[in-house]
Amino acid sequence: MPPLLPEIGFDAEAVLARDSRVVLDPNFLAALHGELARELDAEQTAATLLQMGFLHGLQDVTRALAATAEARPDAPGVSLLLPLRMPCRSREFAGAPGAICLEGAWPDRHEAAAYLSAIGRRTESVCYLSAGYTSGWLSGAFDADLIAVETSCSATGHHACEFVAREAAQWSSHGDPRAARSLAALPFAKMRALVRDRCSRGPERALPEETASTGSMDRDAAAVHIWGPVMVLPYAGPNETLQALELLSRDSAASAVSVIAVDLGGAIIDEAFGALALEQLVQTAEGWGAEVIFVDPSPLSERVLADLEHPPLLVEKGLEAAVALAFQIARSQRRSL
């Protein structure tokens, strides 16, 4: 792969050597956008930022999944806290059967704010590095060539920075002009090979040490998280959790969910009503076509889970590890379609 930015001395290895948190830092982004605007034209700037972001997103998810697969059962969970927040959900899409389509946002709007401070208002979306990072991370998580295209940008006056992610083949078949730049800029096979080679040569921690903590997903928020085929459902009591799942089963945003991680968070499940509710939860999910993983049960509840007549697919320790495992299960399900 040729140097990403020969004019100012950056190449792919140099880009990947940087901590992704630095690359996505607002101050760094402002300086980077300003320098690229002086050194390159608009098309070159967009391609460079897309490639930089893609490499970092793919590298982060590759390390996280590898660390999860290699972790000992008694080891701490792998943190999936990312340097770029990008909540997304499945979107209905009249494409090929099994095609992936997600919509989401970058709620912190770091790159748009950085661009505004360095250059000013623009008529076109500018969050190229964010789009690249999202594309790389999703491509690694789904084991497919995915491209995130920004559909609204606060640097152009919109209230939010939002994106849609689809497989490259779907973008190509629809001839969307917004995706043409990314399709031309991202040689997926070469970038995957580069990241794979780098990760195999220098095994590193999944994500920076400062972010690797059990607080990477806020359990106190008790929020349902949906990332394409994976849902994290906090356990809020037998009745409440079952009702939440039944409501979500009728929500189009959850139509593509095929693996549900039920975060028990150490809750004690009683042998009567609580066990019955969990069995009903598993049956509801199976009727929906989804597998269930129970996460972090109390030691007092492990016997109850083992005796369920309708057991879950797995019982896992560590929420972050369970999420990574759920993505792997979803990917294997997709291959069998």
Features:
5-stranded mixed β-sheet; single chain; 337 residues; Transcription Regulator spoIIAA; 13 helices; alpha/beta
How would you describe the overall organization of this protein?
This protein has helices at 12-17, 20-23, 26-39, 42-70, 110-118, 128-142, 168-174, 177-185, 188-201, 238-248, 273-288, 302-306, 319-335, and strands spanning 88-90, 101-105, 146-152, 162-167, 225-227, 230-234, 259-263, 291-295, 314-316. With 337 residues, it is an alpha/beta fold. It has two domains: 6-211, no CATH class; 217-335, STAS domain (Transcription Regulator spoIIAA, 2-Layer Sandwich), CATH 3.30.750. The strands form two sheets. It has a five-stranded mixed beta sheet, with helices on both faces.
